[in-house]
Amino acid sequence: MSERHQKPEFHLGLIGDNVSRSRSPLLHRLAGRQHGLTVVYDSLIPHDLSKDFDAVFADCATGDYRGINVTYP
């Protein structure tokens, strides 16, 4: 697909522990698709990233995320 015809991309994330079974990533990707958007939705598990909640949250604030959901702490 040429750059001119690419769908807009939204980078979203979910911060929390035990979110591997969350349906949020699928829900947001499907909702984006219905509106012609490409949604990238990351599961951000502080332990897996070797960071605490505050560090992960700060990374999201300074990164390219358009929005995040927080289920932790």
**Sheet having the most strands:** 3 strands, parallel
Counting structural domains, the number is 1
Q: Got a strand count?
A: 3
What is the first-to-last residue Cα distance?
40 Å
CATH topology: Rossmann fold
Using the CA coordinates, give the radius of gyration.
13 Å
Strand order of the largest sheet: 2-1-3
Helical run tally: 2
The gross shape turns out to be globular
Order of helices and strands: EHEHE
CATH superfamily: Leucine Dehydrogenase, chain A, domain 1
Q: Roughly what fraction of the amino acids lie in strands?
A: 15-25%
Provide the residue-averaged pLDDT: 87
Low-confidence stretches: none
Structural class: alpha/beta
Domain Shikimate dehydrogenase substrate binding N-terminal: 14-73
Protein name: Shikimate dehydrogenase (NADP(+))
Enzyme class: oxidoreductase
EC number: 1.1.1.25
Describe this entry's structure for a reader.
The chain has 73 residues and is of the alpha/beta class. The protein has a single domain, classed as Leucine Dehydrogenase, chain A, domain 1 (Rossmann fold, 3-Layer(aba) Sandwich), CATH 3.40.50. It is built from 2 helices and 3 strands; from the N terminus they run βαβαβ. The protein has helices at residues 24-34, 53-62, and strands at residues 9-15, 38-44, 67-70. It has a 3-stranded parallel beta sheet with strand order 2-1-3, with helices on both faces. α1 links the parallel β1 (9-15) and β2. The longest helix has 11 residues, at 24-34. The model has no long low-confidence stretch (mean pLDDT 87). Its EC number is 1.1.1.25. This is Shikimate dehydrogenase (NADP(+)). Residues 14-73 form the Shikimate dehydrogenase substrate binding N-terminal domain.
